[in-house]
Amino acid sequence: MENQSLELAGGRLVEGVEGLVFDGAFLPTGEGKSLAHYLTSVAAFARASWYLRECSLGLRVRASRSVIVANMGRVTIENRVCFHKGPMPAYLIVHPGGELVIGAQTMGSYGVSINCSGRIEIGPECRLGTEVMIMDSHRHRLEPGRRIEGPAPEPVRLGRNVWLGARVMVKPGVTIGDNAVVAAGSIVTRDVEANAVYAGVPARRVRYL
């Protein structure tokens, strides 16, 4: 049977006997699944290609909702990262000299905000809940007479398989260990141990996993 194809903004979708290929990505088709079944996924690939065009993208990056990017530094988004659908976009803001790295298979919910002045590294397989905020600089000094000045950024690092609940705020200089979980609404001001659950304002260890 002759292959069917469809031209989309993000590339060409081709239907073959064993599956679909979109812009070099292979999508295996199960029994009874058609070209139309995959349009939603393909639209997410195309949307990511457009919204994240200022970034260095890996393979099969998806955006089910708009992502607003202000990239004045460097942004690397690795394979299979996904930004989920919701009532508000995600925000990636990287200031001059800043570097943001989002590891493979990380998923971000709607309203996620990442503000990078130095370096923020998010490891692979992380889960960022609704309206999570991550920053590596307070942007303004605390002293009343120096509020116009910006303090030096402090690097932030999330390890592998970190889960941040809804509306978690991660402050400058924080490292979060592998497999850690931070409960919704927490503010992380100090390092988080690996394989542990943290909660509260400021976030404190509740138990180990």
List the topology elements:
Blueprint: E1 4-8, E2 11-15, E3 19-22, E4 25-28, H1 39-51, E5 56-57, E6 62-63, E7 67-71, E8 74-77, E9 82-83, E10 90-94, E11 99-102, E12 107-108, E13 113-116, E14 119-122, E15 127-128, E16 133-135, E17 156-158, E18 163-164, E19 169-170, E20 175-176, E21 181-182, E22 187-188, E23 196-199, E24 204-208
Parallel strand pairs: 5-8, 6-9, 7-10, 8-11, 9-12, 10-13, 11-14, 12-15, 13-16, 14-17, 15-18, 16-19, 17-20, 18-21, 19-22, 21-23
Antiparallel strand pairs: 1-2, 2-3, 3-4, 23-24
Describe this entry's structure for a reader:
There is one protein chain. By secondary structure, this protein is mainly beta. It has two domains: 1-51, no CATH class; 57-208, UDP N-Acetylglucosamine Acyltransferase, domain 1. It is 6% helix and 38% strand. The chain is built from one helix and 24 strands. It has one helix spanning 39-51; strands spanning 4-8, 11-15, 19-22, 25-28, 56-57, 62-63, 67-71, 74-77, 82-83, 90-94, 99-102, 107-108, 113-116, 119-122, 127-128, 133-135, 156-158, 163-164, 169-170, 175-176, 181-182, 187-188, 196-199, 204-208. Strands 6-9-12-15-18-21-23-24 form an eight-stranded mixed sheet. Strands 5-8-11-14-17-20 form a six-stranded parallel sheet, with no helix packed on it. It is globular and about 50 Å long. Residues 1-18 have low confidence and may be disordered.
